[in-house]
Design a protein that fits this description.
The complex is a heterodimer of chains A (about 325) and B (about 250). Helices cover about 30% and strands about 25% of the residues of chain A. Chain A folds into 2 domains: about 210 residues, Rossmann fold, CATH 3.40.50.300; about 60 residues, Alpha-Beta Plaits (2-Layer Sandwich), CATH 3.30.70. The two termini of chain A are about 25 Å apart. Chain A is α/β, with parallel strands linked by helices. Chain A is globular. Chain B is built from 9 helices and 10 strands. Chain B has a domain of about 170 residues: Rossmann fold, CATH 3.40.50. Chain B has a 6-stranded mixed β-sheet with strand order 6-7-8-3-9-10. Chain B has a 4-stranded antiparallel β-sheet with strand order 2-1-4-5, with helices on one face. The chains are: A alpha/beta (about 325), B alpha/beta (about 250). The interface between A and B is large, with 47 and 46 residues.
């Protein structure tokens, strides 16, 4: 069972939220949609979960058309919305029971599927959902999305605003759910989470810029990436590098500077120049790109990095 | 204020009923540094920041921010700091220019000064062309940069940034940090929280809160070394896993 999106477009007033998006997932795949806020991720998800109609294009879930067969889709699909959508004045257990009943099932019947997630919040079964911490709300929402044993799962930014530890735990849980044969479509603004997906689609300003296996990202033909590091602070050299290598793009990455060369960049000359600056413990080497490097190159190629009014960059209708 | 300490916290305790949100926090923030304040959800970051900003008061402890006592001179603190968060920053239905003037007015800047600094700022941000556009109509990345500039418009001694870069694209995120670095050159001290661990590397010093107390406080380089970690993410995971409070 998989998702299929063909030439989907959607506008809200003047804002083009989605611009001719096409992709499909494979059966049992963990597919990540990665992009900043306002890129169009939530809009696309709302179309796929049959809550919103596209202006143009077609989409299907498990071969079922999102317009015509929405009732069937809702039976086999689990959806976790970007905002906490559970009943704040019901308890943890009541929320779960409610969702189970709506889908004509019981907690007991599907307990094995939600066990790993739900066990972590079960000690607080009687607490009101509105009084849970962020990480616990997230686990309850996931339990509720899973309680009817869906075949496909759509998770809209489940890890936004969640700390690094809870994020890691959440992804470990997703991997387990995937092993049950459930196809998962998940969105995130955190680029480092791309590595956890089988494939990722990178979105910006309503456009799908690329789809790739996160382990096989390749830079544009004729461009290379170099990583500079030192044994001291490195920020002060950023401006100098940009000055000496105007064709390249240089950005801070933690305690390193990543330099993506353009066609005319002379890295040997830059390397020699840097040795003159007496950077303590200077090291530089060519390196394969990470997701952020890759994303940034795509952004620059679409000249969307920082123009005054990138297409569709206005405020989007929020979920 | 101790010599060149813009924030000085000694034995800060904050209790809610029997729950101890901040458990004897002690640290200093030096003038002009970028100070990272990290911790898992529920570790007590927000509670401490609210006290440091004069929005809440400590149960006990001696806390001095920008020269004022965090228990008795909270109004003074508010006047002498800047604050920006991802959730609340600018008014969506006011224009770029109106937002700048509103905040400047609240902080008591004079009309002439506002006019002069506003045009300087718009020029620096390259936003002259959109000064009359409503905030709801400008891209998120621009909003973040403007929100930061507005937070330091009145030239506070210290600015508090609460998850300032959540959800923005990787280029804007980096441009934002370059703005932060620029601000420190002008002598502004930066107190920042983030969930992006690569951004922790940009801080001069980082403190990691676990269950309401300080588990580590050092430069990122020292922390990586003492926890034998490749990067700050690994340091954070090692430390935050010790948490007992947070059934997250």
């Amino acid at each position: 069972m998989s998702f299929r999106v063909e030439h989907i477009s959607k506008t809200f007033g003047e804002v083009q939220a989605l611009d001719d998006i096409s992709f499909s997932t494979s059966e049992g795949e963990l597919f990540g949609l990665i992009g900043p806020d306002g890129a169009g991720k939530s809009t696309l998800f709302r179309i796929l979960v049959t809550l919103l109609h596209a202006d143009n294009g077609e989409a299907s879930v498990a071969g079922l058309d999102v317009r015509k067969e929405y009732k069937k889709i809702r039976q086999i699909l689990g959806y976790m919305a970007g905002r906490f959508s559970l009943y704040q004045d019901l308890s943890v257990k009541e929320n779960l029971q409610f969702y189970a009943t709506v889908f004509g099932t019981t907690i007991d019947k599907n307990y094995d599927l939600i066990k790993d997630v739900y066990a972590q919040i079960e000690p607080f079964a009687d607490r009101l959902a509105g009084r849970l911490s962020g990480g616990m709300k997230q686990k309850l929402a996931l339990s509720c999305a899973l309680i009817h044993r869906p075949r496909l799962l759509v998770l809209d930014e489940p890890t936004t605003g969640v700390d690094a530890v809870s994020r890691k735990e959440f992804w470990d849980l997703l991997k387990k759910i995937q092993q049950e044969g459930i196809t998962i479509l998940v969105s995130t603004p955190y680029m480092d989470e791309a590595a956890m997906c089988d494939r990722v689609g990178l979105v910006q300003n309503g456009k799908l810029m690329a789809v790739s296996d996160p382990a096989k990202l390749t830079l544009r033909e004729g461009t290379r990436m170099f990583v500079f590091s030192s044994s001291g602070p490195i920020y002060q050299y950023l401006g100098l590098i940009r000055e000496k290598a105007p064709d390249a793009s240089a950005w801070l990455f933690g305690d390193e500077i990543h330099v993506l060369t353009g066609q005319g960049s002379d890295m040997e000359a830059l390397g020699k120049e840097m040795h003159k600056w007496d950077v303590p413990g200077l090291e530089w080497k060519e390196s394969p790109p990470g997701v952020e490097d890759y994303f940034m190159q795509l952004m620059a190629a679409e000249s969307l990095s920082d123009p005054l009014f990138p297409p569709g960059a206005g405020e989007q209708k929020k979920r | 204020m101790t010599e060149n300490h813009i924030i000085s916290v000694h034995n800060l305790v904050k209790k809610f009923g029997t729950f101890v949100a901040n458990d004897h926090l002690t640290f200093d923030v030096k003038e002009g540094e970028i100070f990272g304040f990290l911790g898992a959800n529920g570790a007590g970051k927000t509670t401490a920041i609210r006290i440091l900003c004069g929005l809440s008061y400590p149960t006990s402890g001696e806390i001095v921010v920008a020269g004022y006592d965090a228990d008795r001179e909270r109004e003074k603190i508010k006047q002498n700091i800047g604050y920006m968060s991802q959730k609340f920053s600018l008014y969506d239905d006011l224009t770029v220019s109106e937002n700048i003037r509103l905040y400047a007015g609240i902080y008591g800047l004079g009309r002439r000064e506002i006019r002069q600094r506003e045009s300087e700022l718009l020029q620096r941000l390259g936003m002259e062309g959109i000064m009359n556009r409503r905030i709801s109509m400008i891209p998120l990345g621009w909003k973040q940069k403007l929100a930061f500039s507005v937070a330091v418009f009145h030239k506070p001694k210290v600015v508090f940034l609460d998850e300032p870069t959540g959800g923005v694209d990787p280029i804007t995120r980096r441009q934002f940090w370059e703005l932060i670095h620029e601000a420190t050159r002008e002598g502004i001290t930066v107190f920042v929280t983030t969930h992006y661990m690569d951004e922790a590397e940009y801080c001069d010093r980082v403190t990691i809160l676990v269950d309401g107390h300080i588990e580590a406080l050092a430069s990122p380089r020292e922390l990586r070394k003492s926890y034998n970690a490749k990067n700050m993410n690994e340091v954070f995971l090692q430390l935050a896993r010790k948490a007992k409070n947070g059934m997250q």
